[in-house]
Amino acid sequence: MSVDSQRLDRIDPTTRRVPPLGGFSWTFLGIELKRVFRNFSVVGFTLIFPIAMLFAIALPNKGYPATDVPLEQGGLSAAVPIMISMAVYGSMVAASMTGVSVAAERAQGWSRQLRLTPLNPLVYMLIKVITGLALGAIAVIVTLIAGAALGITAPLGNLIVAALLAWLTALSMTSLGLAVGYAFPAQNAMRYLGPLLPILSFMGGLFVPLSLLPAELQMAATFTPLWGIADLSQKAIIGAPLDPMAWVNLFAWFIVFTGLAVLMFRRDTRRV
Question: What is the pLDDT of residue 255?
Fold first, then answer.
C-alpha cells in the first residue's frame, strides 16, 4: 500500500469540521476582486461607455429644465436624470459581466475545482454578488464624478439617495449574470446577455424617456426588470416622490433573478 493510500485510510470523514461561514474567505474575495479589476475589457467598457453617453446625450440637454422650474430659478437640468440613468447602466453592465464570468470558469474547470473544497456553493455565489457590487459602486461613482466635471449637478442629498439606488442595480443584475452563466456554455453566454442588456435599458427608460413612447409601450415597460430602479433613481435625483410600484418591481425582479441563478446552479451541479 502506498503512503498516500495509508494517509487516506487514516482520514475519518466524521471528524472533519464544516468551515465557519460556509468557507467564506476574505482572501478568496480579494482574489475575485483582483481578477475582475484585471479584466480591462470589462472595467473599460463599464467606465468608458457611461461617460461617452454623458457627452453624447446629457450635454446637449444641459440647457433644458428637468422639471417645471426654469433653470434661471434654480431648477435642475434635464441632463441630471440622464446622468443617473448612465450610472444605473454602468452598474448594470459591471454586475452582469461579473456574474456571467462563471460561464468561462465552468469551461476552464475552475468551478469543478472549487467543488472539491469546503466552500459552500451559495457562499461562492455571494462572493460573486459582492464583487459585482464593488465594481458597480465604482461605475456609479466614476459616472457621477464625470457628470460633476461637466457641470451636471444636483442637490447633495438627492445625489446620494439616487447613487445608492443606482448601486442597487448590481444586486439583481449580478444574479441575472449568474443565471445566464450557469445556463449556457461560455461561448454562448455573452452572445445572449450582450443584446439583452441594451433592450432592457431601452424598455426601462434609461436611454429614452418613457413619456416619449406610445402608451402601450409605457405600460409594458413597467413590467421590465430595469423600470423600477430607473424610475426610482431618476425621481430621487430630481426630488420627486417615489412610486411604490417601482419598489415592487425592483424587489420582484431581484427575487426572480436570484431564484433563476440558484436553479441554474443546481442544474449545473447535477451534471457534474
Answer: 93
